[in-house]
Amino acid sequence: MKLFAAFDPASAFGLLAVAIVGNVACALLGCYLVLRRLSMLGDALTHGVLPGIALGVLFTGSLSGWGIMLGAVVFGFLTAFLTQTVSAQAGVAEDSSIGIVFTTLFSVGVILLTLLPDMHIDTGCVFFGSLELVTLSTESWLGVFTTMVSSLLATVAFIVVFWKELKVASFDSALAEAMGYRPQLMHYLLMGLVSLVSVTSFATVGSIVVVAMLIVPAACAYLLTDRLAVMLWLAAGVGALSAVLGYFLVPTHGNVPGMMAVMAGALLLLAVLFAPRHGVVAKVVRNVRLALRIAMEDILADLYRREESRQDRKSDPATGRWINRLALARLRNSGSITAAEVGAWRLTDRGRNQARSLIRAHRLWEAYLEKNLDLPPDHLHDPAMRMEHFIGPALQEELAAELHEPGTDPHGRQIPKG
Amino acid sequence: MMNFLDTLGIPYNTRIVLTGACLLGASAGVIGAFAVLRRRALTGDALAHASLPGVCVAFLVVGDRNFVSLLIGAFLAGLVGIGVIAVLSRWTRLKEDASIGIVLGTFFGCGTVLLSIIQRLKGGSPAGLDGFILGKAASMNFADVRLISLLALGTLLLMTALYKEFKLTTFDPGFARAQGWPDFLLDLTLLIAIALTVVIGLPAVGVVMMAALLIIPAVTARFWTERLGILLLLAAVVGMGMGAAGTLLSDRPFSLPTGPAIVLVGAACFAISACAAPRRGMLARYLAQRRFSSEMEQRLLRLILFKLSQRSSTIDAEEARIDGNWSVPHFRWLLRQAQKEGTLHHDGKDIRLTAQGEQETARADRDNRLWEAFLLAHPDLARGYAACFATQSPEDALPPEVLKSLVERRPSSSREAAT
């Protein structure tokens, strides 16, 4: 595809290298944005630095180099500062304040750009980016690549040097303040770096796709792990992977940065579905397993009660539900119940032991509720039905000890011994 | 209106843009007010970005630049974007801000890919399509303005029909639900209204400016009023003013780009309101804070003087100053203030409370003791009254039966016994 369309390994892989380095830098910083719930401030920064870029170009006359870097970082700070000031001093909600500040600064930037008629930069270019332009000449490629690598190195250095400060500030800003880590300073340093990285990415991927590259890989990693270090590595991996996938899967002459954002989105979708602990599939499986356990335990407890009052379990309307049918099958296979006659079930010894523990939990909880919450007897059964599944042997002993090993529950039924 | 503008010598094209910008500003202001009040200010921004793939798909399906089909495409894609935001922030551990950023970035990226495909398929430049996102206010024509007028009319009808319902779900969604109102449907109606506004406004002012048109009028109006009806009116007026002034600035003598000009006018309105609004403005807040802290210091001064006057009828100024931990110039300023209020006489060294001062001080002392007794007797209630401790007398703030129990329990001070 792309590779064959323009088979010039130097330019093709050069382009990919730029994209990978840029994405990794974005992804690393994005982790802190996602953790500190500053994602939209990242979006605001990528717009708010526009006047800085325009001024940089205006004063140095060059589209690359220190001029626009400096301008971008200054206006990145300004965006962060104004957002905070407007929301704290004028009492405007944070999202509204972000909305006002970035649209205003962006407008200033657009107006400044109209003052540069002969420069090859316009709003459309800032929005859409043009990774392809980077490879037009080796010289400009080298320039862009060097800038990208330096901003990645700056990002890595920042994270390594301020590792613990950033960590504490991200998870517990008040604690960071109390420990003297100056979370405000960390905040502004982070914002400065985000501006730096997004301005280096501007020319290549455009201001909106930068937002995707900042947030999506980090969000992906956030779904996959609970550890900060792992999250950073994962985010960097996802960022690099979406660059590679986007580059190779893009339709001929398609927009590569856009495809990278789409690929990052696709990877995020996979994470949303299949993440080991926080994924949708994992959650559904957990819920079904819990529902199955509860259904099995309810059947056991029900059989025990019938045994107590000398009734056989005949077919029950509740067995119609698929989860109950599954539960019955599991119980029979594990040898907790046996078929007594057609449509009726009986506990085996093994099943009776399991049921005894449940009934004990249930009746102890009823006794506990009656003693401590002073509930009327007809209000005790339902909460106990829910709690019995979560009261293990240890908790049962604690309850029994507190209630001085009661012989019967508030309804007068016997509490089985543990 | 047209004739009036004609007499002002405004050319036809500008009049078209002016009418369109004003009506768009007014509708966006009203709809945006609800978005802002519901903490959904950035939803419009996300929606605007998310509509790009919709525009492209509509173009690919219909095959030409039919304006209405592009609008429908944008609208549907915007709604899908909003849906994805809701799903991500409700069903995964991602927070709302990250969800908004994800949708904004990936949908827009998808749009740019589609845009490049269109460019290749049709051979031509997709200028008309990216113009849809970047906005070209100057090229607004009569058909656009007709559409915007329909939007404005629709907004007006929606507000008259559902004002009460929107008001309640905005400020107390729980209560609205308890009253049996279709909470979700109302929310959806509002989202659709936001989406329509954004989609119709996009080709005129572009993504970024659309976000500004939704947010700035509402936040600006919020500084001036506490009432929803007035807020909506003001937001409409501010939005209209932004449209009008922005369009005029984009005309001959200034020739600024229209979208940014509109936003900058709005930003100026916002800045002025944020500084100068009577109660919520920064200046007013600063002054209120100054007044409050000076009142607090006067109160502290009186209490110290009262304590010292228990010992002798004249009070040593230096002793009082050290007691309150004030610097010399600040203490002098405090005394001058107090003298102006007529609470004390100060002859350089000694301080004497006037009759009025003595009365006020005795009252402050009594209030203090009552509050102390209240804190001792009802620490559980203290939180609710924290704001009253310094500024109000317990006799005004507390319910009579609580006050009565305090007065009975409290051992009366020697001073009170004497009077």
Outline:
The complex is a heterodimer of chains A (418) and B (419). Chain A is an all-alpha fold and 418 residues long.
* Structure annotation, total helices of chain B: 20
CATH architecture of the largest domain in chain A: Orthogonal Bundle
Task: Bin the helical content of chain B.
Answer: over 70%
Give the CATH topology of the largest domain in chain B: ABC transporter involved in vitamin B12 uptake, BtuC
Principal-axes shape call of chain A: elongated
Overall tally of structural domains of chain A:
2
Low-confidence stretches of chain A: 1-9, 130-137
Q: How many angstroms does the end-to-end distance of chain A come to? A: 70 Å
Biggest chain pair contact, residues each? A-B, 64 and 62 residues
Question: Strand portion of chain A, in percent?
Answer: under 5%
Query: What is the arithmetic mean of pLDDT of chain A?
Result: 84
Count all strands of chain B and give the number: 3
**Oligomeric state:** heterodimer
Architecture overview:
The complex is a heterodimer of chains A (418) and B (419). Chain A has helices at residues 2-5, 9-35, 39-48, 50-60, 66-89, 94-114, 123-128, 138-161, 163-171, 173-178, 183-205, 207-224, 228-249, 256-274, 280-308, 322-333, 349-373, 381-387, 393-402; strands spanning 337-341, 344-347. By secondary structure, chain A is mostly helical. Chain A has 2 domains: 14-275, ABC transporter involved in vitamin B12 uptake, BtuC; 279-418, Arc Repressor Mutant, subunit A (Orthogonal Bundle), CATH 1.10.10.10. Chain A has a two-stranded antiparallel ribbon. The longest helix of chain A has 29 residues, at 280-308. Chain B is mainly α. Chain B folds into 3 domains: 2-210, ABC transporter involved in vitamin B12 uptake, BtuC, CATH 1.10.3470; 288-353, Arc Repressor Mutant, subunit A; 365-419, no CATH class. Chain B is 77% helix and 2% strand. Chain B contains 20 helices and 3 strands. In chain B, strands 1-3-2 form a 3-stranded antiparallel beta sheet. In chain B, α16 packs across α19 (400-409). The radius of gyration of chain B is 31 Å and the shape is elongated. Mean pLDDT of chain B is 83; it is low at 412-419. Classes of the chains: A mainly alpha (418), B mainly alpha (419). Chains A and B meet through α3, α6, α7, α12 and α14 of A and α5, α6, α10 and α12 of B.
